[in-house]
Each structure stands twice: as C-alpha cells, then as structure tokens.
Amino acid sequence: MQKTLWMLPVVAAGVAATRKAGTTHRSEDRAPTAYDMFEHKTDGGVRAVIRPGS
Predict the structure, then answer these.
(1) Any residues with CB less than 8 A from the CB of 2 and at least 6 apart, and which?
(2) N or C: which end of the chain has fewer CB within 10 A?
(3) 29: Cβ–Cβ under 8 A, 6 or more apart, which residues?
(4) How confident is the model at residue 7 (pLDDT cuts 50, 70, 90)?
(5) Which string of DSSP letters, residue by residue, matches 1-54?
(6) Measured distance CA(5)–CA(1) in Å, rounded
(7) pLDDT tens digits, 19-36
(8) How far apart are CA 26 and CA 49, in angstroms?
C-alpha cells in the first residue's frame, strides 16, 4: 500500500488521468460491487476507479 500513496495527491489535484488507470469504473454508490470485482478479478477487473459524487 505504501508504494501507491504518492498517487493520492496527484489524483486529488486532477493531474493524473484516472479514466485510463482502471479497468472497472463505478459510481460511489456501486463501490462495493467494484471492489468485489477487483478482489476476485472477475469481469476483467484488475483496478477499480470509484467516481465520488456520481
């Protein structure tokens, strides 16, 4: 987990294009489903991106 913490401020500032970073994109209310896909690697889910406020 420590290896990726440098990304948090970059993503929060809008510098990183998270659209291309994930294989699974879900709104905040569907976060549990996205995490389940990521955790079990189903439906090609390798990286999950949760869109806050959607």
Answers:
(1) none
(2) N
(3) 54
(4) confident
(5) -GGGTTHHHHHHTT-S-TTTT-SEEEEGGGHHHHHHHHHHT-TT-SSEEEETT-
(6) 7
(7) 666 767 788 898 888 888
(8) 6
- Give the tokens for residue 1: 């987990």
Whether the CB-CB separation of 33 and 26 falls below 8 Å is answered with: yes
Residue 25 vs residues 2, 3, 7: alpha-carbon distances, Å:
23, 22, 18
Q: For residue 43, give both structure tokens.
A: 């439906």
Residues written for the chain: 54
Residue 40, Cβ density class (10 Å: 0-12 exposed, 13-18 middle, ≥19 buried)? exposed
Which residue matches tokens 């990521």?
A: 38
- Tokens linked to 27: 């709104």
